[in-house]
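Changelog-adjacent note: as of this version, every example in the card shows the full chain rather than a window. The one below runs 207 residues end to end.
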Amino acid sequence: NCKVWLLSVLACVCLSVNGHMLQDIEGQKVQTDNQKKVDISLGFGLNAGFVTSKVYTPAGDYSWEGGMGYDGEVNCVFASGYGVGVDYEHSETSYPVGRGLDYSLKLDFVMPHFLYSAAMNEEWLLRAKVGLGYAHYNDGEKAQTGFGFKTGLGVEHMFSRHLGVALQLEQRTAFFSEPDGFSYYKKNNEKYGYSRLSVNLELIYHL
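Full-length structure tokens:
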């Protein structure tokens, strides 16, 4: 009888331990599934683009002048594919004004955005975003802060669960207050600001 009683007690203990282990495993599985419902990523890269708006310099008028820059972004995408984020972009474009001198235009943007990310297969993601926010320019003589908006469309190739590379086409437009004398140069319906079309190559790390 003692042996039967001891075996019964051991069996109950084993079942209780197994039950707790099963609950822990299931809890960890639920927690892991919940964690996968939000994808947080960091991106850093370079961009090449053109200032598509007309720029007036002492040497003449220019448009579609090319330049380089760098950018970074933080994104949070939910299981639905929709998400939010914020990015920073800096670019520099030079315009020759003669006598070996260049007119240098520096543009900076800090813009929160809404985005959508859809998996085309296990390795490729489609990315689209739209946003608005802070814009700033400096041409060496004057600087202004204004308002801007952006749109972007691109793809991301996933090399692993955490690492990917994104290629995006982006359009950014910024508006600023008109400086003194601008009315002499501007044509009908022109606004004072800059538009830039760029191709951005970014390294993306998913947390």
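Structural remarks: Strands lie at 38-51, 55-57, 60-62, 65-78, 82-98, 101-119, 124-138, 143-158, 163-175, 193-206.
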